[in-house]
Design the sequence.
């Protein structure tokens, strides 16, 4: 139905335009060669036209009309001037093409005006090569197929070139993906060979002559269309350009109707699932690293990476083979070395990176490229080879305060021909690079300062509350106990010294030295007892020390006992030495005392530890 | 001068010890976190299993819509057509925790996704849990035991199994809350501080928010209080530790919607109230005892007891009458099956059908707590040496948790902290004894040649004391692994110290024993790392198998869910067995009929009935439920054992429990469940069988099921009411669409135009009895 309707409109256009055919008849196309490549879902028209000026005035513009049905799907149009033929063929830069609205022409055609670099004078000629790339020109017919069917698509155009100018000789070649054609319109001079259909040559065709041709053929290539692709390119001056691409993919070919049988698909994938999209290949730049492929529910394990010095190939399979009408969404991401894509010129930095998506044969209906510059970038400008809608936003990420400037570039109907580099110029001082580490350092410094302050500060709310006073008293008690412990330890050291002097005595027999040691020890002990007295009385008076006092008292008593015994032992040993008694005799006499000393010592040690615990 | 030095070095040593234990704790936290990352490294950062997907979905909703919407969330994408009030039926602790974490991170401009936060919540909280274990064990038995217990808990396999990265389940935060609540209880008990008592109630509130296991706390603490009272350990500290907890805790618990009035209505909480009354009586008795003379007191006791008994019996009788009048005796099914392990299998097949509700086997004890099982008795003995309030609590905790773990595998998780605490105590006490004897002998040996006098030992003991600080410092720096024991030597409990002094073992024995203990510890570490890496890190939605030609990944579940989410209408209803409900709603974002929250047995039985009915009857049931797709999990192609055919008997049982026309014996041949040619016709014609094995025979020509290891019984058949719309790469998930009814009518009208109208209507009325939804 739809097709029929457009047929009618074309016929209508045809009839309508013959009326206006004399409007721009100055130019004549002497030779026209048209090639239509239908081998994938992206339809590529390559037209080479030799334009001659037969009029009186020099012409600087050539008009290229397209019917509306095509114009709204026109993704890419480039016009070049070619010179020479065959191997010597050279082509110029792309010429400037603009949408124009010539007067007297009905609006159902979209006109593109090619501005020639130099005017074509009277009688002069030049050869133009027009490359036009269209999406969505192929309509699946039938619209729904089963798993076993091949995908058939219909394509419709005119056998003659739609032109406001008269065409002397023209021919049309339609290239098909496979040599299988369901049907095609037969006109005079139609030839079908291999996978090509040739129309023409036709001679002396008047302007706006449109004999419709329809080709209905087998095209089993999947029609992968990304309804939306968001590419986020984030620059980190620490050496990485991170690219994240979010795909929203649909198979726009003939829809699958009825069952999907995995059995059939696995047994004969090329017959039962011929048009299914099973894998995609992304050509990433060389030295791409940290590649990932996932969707919102996690990693997708069916992917492979092949890399060499020129490129990195990422082969991905969707989670399931995609049949017509099926959708999926996924994300791929990779890092690129900064020095390959970021350059400096005239005090500005610029990013130079491709615009389109790295996968071939994908049509992108809506491409959004976001370039995230580091925080603090300014003076930003974008240079792109084609017109793009540009907006700005900011993004907050790690350690940001003001946010990073983001340039959002939007373009609809993107095809692989748009994979050209674009540049983003901006200023960014290297010093701002250090801002974030410094911020971290300062933050941690503050944190530690705060910790130190917290530990040393007293946060008690009420200085007169009983618990606070109790705490203060407890602190005092603790210091007192500590001092007391020190004294006790010193006492014990003196005890040790006494013992040592006894051992010396047994070795050397020097009674005098031993006596001297005894004397100094006595003096020391007396002093220490004196020192401990105020502490003890304080402990006894303090209510906080109630639990400890008995232990302390016990310790004092035991210690005194120990001291007495030790002195006793000392004097006994010294006595016996003076009396020159034998070693064994001394041991016998001392043994009883010794036992007590050991016991007491043990107890004292235990008590000391107990107090220590408190 | 020497004394000055020793005292200085002692304070230095003290400070050093603090810093060191802080560092050790930090490292334990890092270890607890990182040992759980195996799943992320070996697989990917993804949510695991079933329940975590629900929690993840709830968290997503929370972060998107805010707390109030979450509170009032009525989820219409599950339990179609009933729906589910999510806000009122979930324990919100985990979700709120992760949601808050996410919010904090995002407010600090750290753009982590909700998924990432959810994946790493469990490891973070297991680090917290090991710190809480340190605090708890420190209160019970000192810092040395604390550090050991914390290290053990950080890597205990039982806990790892529930808290690997991605295992975003209630237990992940609940174990932390459990231990922390116990810590605060013990802390209150030791200090008698009302401050800690309040914190304790708040921690209990967090626990109630997080997990249904809070009933364990509210029963264990009263038990301990009762134990203290009975053993004559009543003190005002006990009162402060318990009374505020019951009052504040119950008030706070009632604030959680899912608990609500259950906090005062159900039998699980009665013990706490009973003990609450008892402790007041006891407090009163102690008070009266304090103001009365002994004789007066005796008279008062006899008076009060005789009157009190009467009142008590009256109250008790009323209570029992009240409780007995309710069908489940006021207990929820899961709690009842705890008290009577055979309860679930008798009355509630839906609880019995879950594998984690089965009693554990002996190997699972060894798998989950490993050598701790042998150390626990030693720990119990160590707890008794000086029995304090705190250590009696530890003993009670281990005894009850051992019982509960014996009832349900799942509760092994509650046992794990108790086992770690006990083993920590045992290990540190043992090391304490052994290293002290070694040091005693070593220092003694170096000293003895110098002295000829008889009092060698005494001197050396002295020297040991003075040199101890220096020695410890040296040894600490040289041997890191020993630091826990050193710590322990510094501050053991008061009384044990005296006893230990007597306990000096021979040098050789101690060296060998220390060596063996270290070996035991090493074995434990090796086992834990193995368990974390191999046994518990699989996310279960991605399966891998290692064959001779490398690693093979089975990602079929996500393949199916992704297909559903992208290629079906948003409002389509998907029917599957309840196991896959949570995953379908979370990953495929499609409405399901039943899910893992098994709140409506009838609904589940309906699905079970449909699966066990013949095609036509099943179609009717599904159609009446507005179902568009039916999802079955089938493992026969690759040998995935936990598929729907293996779960099928549960569907029959649960279905048959509500709709008696489904009879289990119809599906069994001589009491045996089989799917080969010996299977019963009912089995071979039921929907589950047909959907699982549809066109399966064409794969290898004879239909060999690799899970059941037999050829299937019915090989060639066609589906009349369903059509296959998707099957995953390894056939693990198969999705069928219900054929629309109009097609059927047209097919019939072709054959017999006149008969069609009447025959269809009569068939409809024929099935009406069996279909609960018409």
Sequence:
């Amino acid at each position: 139905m739809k097709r029929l309707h457009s047929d009618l409109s074309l016929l209508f256009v045809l009839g309508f335009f013959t009326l206006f055919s004399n409007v721009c008849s100055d130019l004549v196309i002497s030779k026209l060669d048209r090639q239509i490549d239908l081998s994938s879902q992206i339809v590529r028209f390559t037209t080479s036209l030799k334009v001659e000026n037969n009029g009186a005035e020099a012409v600087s513009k050539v008009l290229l009309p397209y019917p509306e049905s095509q114009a709204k799907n026109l993704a890419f149009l480039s016009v070049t001037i070619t010179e020479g033929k065959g191997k010597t063929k050279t082509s110029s830069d792309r010429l400037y093409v603009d949408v124009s609205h010539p007067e007297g022409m009905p609006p159902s055609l979209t006109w593109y005006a090619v501005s020639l670099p130099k005017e074509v004078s009277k009688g002069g000629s030049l050869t133009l090569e027009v490359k036009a790339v269209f999406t969505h020109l192929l309509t699946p017919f039938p619209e729904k197929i089963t798993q076993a069917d091949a995908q058939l698509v219909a394509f419709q155009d005119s056998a003659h070139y739609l032109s406001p100018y008269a065409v002397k000789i023209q021919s049309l070649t339609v290239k098909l993906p496979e040599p299988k054609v369901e049907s095609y319109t037969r006109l005079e001079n139609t030839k079908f060979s291999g996978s090509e259909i040739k129309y023409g040559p036709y001679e002396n065709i008047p302007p706006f002559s449109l004999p419709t041709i329809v080709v209905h053929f087998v095209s089993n290539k999947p029609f992968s269309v990304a309804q939306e692709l968001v590419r986020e390119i984030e620059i980190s001056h620490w050496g990485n350009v991170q690219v994240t691409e979010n795909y929203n993919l649909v198979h726009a070919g003939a829809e699958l109707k009825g069952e999907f049988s995995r059995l059939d698909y696995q047994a004969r994938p090329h017959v039962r699932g011929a048009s299914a999209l099973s894998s995609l290949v992304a050509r990433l730049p060389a030295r791409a690293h940290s590649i990932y492929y996932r969707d919102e529910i996690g990693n997708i394990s069916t992917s492979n990476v092949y890399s060499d010095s020129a490129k990195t190939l990422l082969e991905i399979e969707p989670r399931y083979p995609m049949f017509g009408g099926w959708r999926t969404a996924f994300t791929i991401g990779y890092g690129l070395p900064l020095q390959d894509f970021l350059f400096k010129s005239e005090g500005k930095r610029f990013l130079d990176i491709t615009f389109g998506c790295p996968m071939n044969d994908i049509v992108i209906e809506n491409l959004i490229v976001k370039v995230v510059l580091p925080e603090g970038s300014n003076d930003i400008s974008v240079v792109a080879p084609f017109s793009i809608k540009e907006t700005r936003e900011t993004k907050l990420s790690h350690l940001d305060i003001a946010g990073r400037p983001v340039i959002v570039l939007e373009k609809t109907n993107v095809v692989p021909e748009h994979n050209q580099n674009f540049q983003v110029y901006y200023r960014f001082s290297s010093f701002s690079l250090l801002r974030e580490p410094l911020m971290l350092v300062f933050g941690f410094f503050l944190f530690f300062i705060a910790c130190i302050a917290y530990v040393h500060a007293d946060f008690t709310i009420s200085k007169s509350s009983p618990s606070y006073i109790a705490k203060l008293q407890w602190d005092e008690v603790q210091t007192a106990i500590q001092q007391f412990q020190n004294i006790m330890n010193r006492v014990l050291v003196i005890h040790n010294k006494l013992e040592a002097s006894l051992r010396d005595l047994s070795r050397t027999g020097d009674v005098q030295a031993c006596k001297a040691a005894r004397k100094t020890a006595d003096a020391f002990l007396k002093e220490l007892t004196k020192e401990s007295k105020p502490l003890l009385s304080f402990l006894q008076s303090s209510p906080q020390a109630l639990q400890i006092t008995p232990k302390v008292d016990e310790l004092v008593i035991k210690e005194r006992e120990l001291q007495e015994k030790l002195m006793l032992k000392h004097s006994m040993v010294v006595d016996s030495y003076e009396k020159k008694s034998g070693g064994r005799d001394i041991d016998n006499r001392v043994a009883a005392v010794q036992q007590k000393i050991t016991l007491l010592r043990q107890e004292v040690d235990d008590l000391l530890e107990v107090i220590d615990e408190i | 001068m020497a004394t000055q030095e020793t005292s200085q070095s002692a304070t230095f040593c003290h400070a050093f010890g603090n810093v060191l234990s802080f560092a050790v704790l930090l490292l334990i936290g890092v270890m607890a976190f990182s040992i759980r990352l195996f799943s992320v490294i070996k697989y990917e950062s993804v949510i695991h299993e079933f329940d975590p997907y629900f929690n993840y979905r709830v968290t997503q909703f929370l972060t998107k819509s805010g707390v109030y919407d979450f509170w009032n969330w009525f989820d219409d994408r599950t339990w179609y057509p009933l729906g589910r009030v999510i806000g009122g039926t979930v324990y919100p602790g985990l979700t709120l925790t992760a949601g808050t974490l996410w919010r904090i991170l995002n407010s600090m401009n750290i753009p982590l996704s909700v998924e990432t936060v959810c994946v790493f919540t469990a490891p973070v909280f297991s680090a917290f849990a090991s710190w809480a274990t340190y605090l708890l064990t420190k209160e019970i038995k000192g810092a040395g035991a604390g550090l050991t217990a914390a290290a053990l808990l950080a890597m205990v396999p039982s806990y790892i199994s529930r808290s690997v990265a991605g295992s975003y389940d209630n237990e992940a935060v609940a174990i932390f809350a459990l231990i922390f609540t116990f810590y605060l209880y013990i802390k209150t008990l030791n200090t008698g501080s009302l401050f800690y008592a309040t914190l304790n109630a708040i921690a209990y509130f967090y626990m109630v928010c997080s997990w249904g296991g809070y009933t364990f706390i509210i029963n264990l603490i009263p038990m301990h209080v009762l134990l203290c009272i009975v053993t004559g350990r009543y003190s005002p500290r006990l009162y402060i530790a318990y009374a505020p907890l019951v009052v504040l805790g119950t008030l706070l618990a009632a604030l959680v919607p899912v608990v609500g009035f259950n906090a005062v209505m159900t039998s699980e909480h009665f013990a706490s109230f009973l003990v609450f009354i008892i402790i007041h009586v006891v407090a009163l008795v102690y008070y009266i005892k304090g103001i009365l003379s002994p004789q007066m007191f005796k008279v008062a006791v006899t008076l009060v007891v005789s009157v009190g008994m009467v009142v008590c019996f009256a109250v008790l009788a009323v209570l029992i009458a009240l409780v007995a009048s309710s069908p489940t005796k006021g207990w929820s099914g899961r709690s009842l099956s705890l008290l009577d392990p055979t309860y679930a299998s008798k009355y509630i097949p839906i609880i019995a059908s879950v594998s984690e509700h089965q009693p554990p086997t002996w190997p699972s004890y060894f798998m989950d707590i490993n050598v701790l099982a042998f150390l626990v008795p030693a720990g119990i003995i160590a707890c008794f040496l000086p029995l304090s309030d705190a250590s009696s609590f530890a003993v009670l905790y281990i005894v009850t948790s051992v019982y509960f773990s014996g009832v349900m595998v799942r509760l092994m998780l509650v046992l794990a902290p108790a086992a770690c605490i006990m083993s920590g105590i045992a290990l540190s006490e043992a090391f304490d004894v052994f290293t002290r004897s070694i040091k005693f002998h070593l220092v003694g040996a170096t000293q003895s040649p110098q002295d000829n006098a008889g009092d060698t030992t005494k001197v050396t003991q002295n020297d040991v004391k003075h040199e101890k600080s220096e020695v410890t410092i040296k040894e600490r720096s040289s041997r890191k692994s020993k630091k826990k024991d050193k710590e322990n030597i510094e501050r053991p409990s008061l009384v044990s110290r005296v006893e230990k002094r007597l306990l000096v073992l021979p040098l050789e024995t101690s060296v060998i024993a220390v060596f063996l203990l270290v070996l035991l510890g090493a074995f434990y570490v090796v086992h834990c790392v193995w368990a974390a890496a191999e046994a518990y890190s699989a996310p279960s939605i991605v399966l891998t198998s290692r064959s001779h030609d490398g690693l093979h990944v089975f990602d079929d579940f996500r393949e199916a869910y992704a297909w559903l989410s992208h290629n079906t209408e948003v409002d389509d209803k998907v029917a599957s067995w309840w196991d896959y409900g949570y995953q379908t709603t979370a990953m495929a974002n499609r409405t399901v009929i039943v899910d893992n929250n098994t709140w409506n047995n009838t609904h589940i039985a309906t699905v079970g009935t449909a699966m066990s009915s013949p095609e036509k009857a099943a179609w009717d049931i599904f159609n009446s439920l507005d179902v568009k797709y039916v999802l079955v999990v089938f493992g026969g192609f690759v040998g995935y054992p936990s598929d729907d055919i293996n779960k099928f008997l549960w569907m029959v049982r649960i279905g048959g429990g509500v709709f008696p026309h489904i009879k289990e014996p119809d599906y069994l041949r001589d009491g045996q469940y089989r799917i080969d040619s010996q299977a019963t016709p009912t089995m071979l014609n039921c929907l589950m069988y047909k959907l699982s094995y549809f066109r399966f025979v064409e794969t290898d020509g004879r239909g060999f099921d690799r899970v059941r290891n037999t050829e299937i019984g019915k090989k060639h058949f066609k589906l009349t009411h369903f059509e296959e719309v998707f099957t995953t790469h390894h056939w693990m998930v198969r999705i069928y669409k219900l054929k629309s009814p109009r097609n059927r009518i047209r097919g019939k009208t072709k054959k017999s135009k006149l008969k069609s109208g009447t025959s269809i209507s009569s068939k409809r009325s024929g099935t009406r009895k069996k279909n609960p939804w018409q």
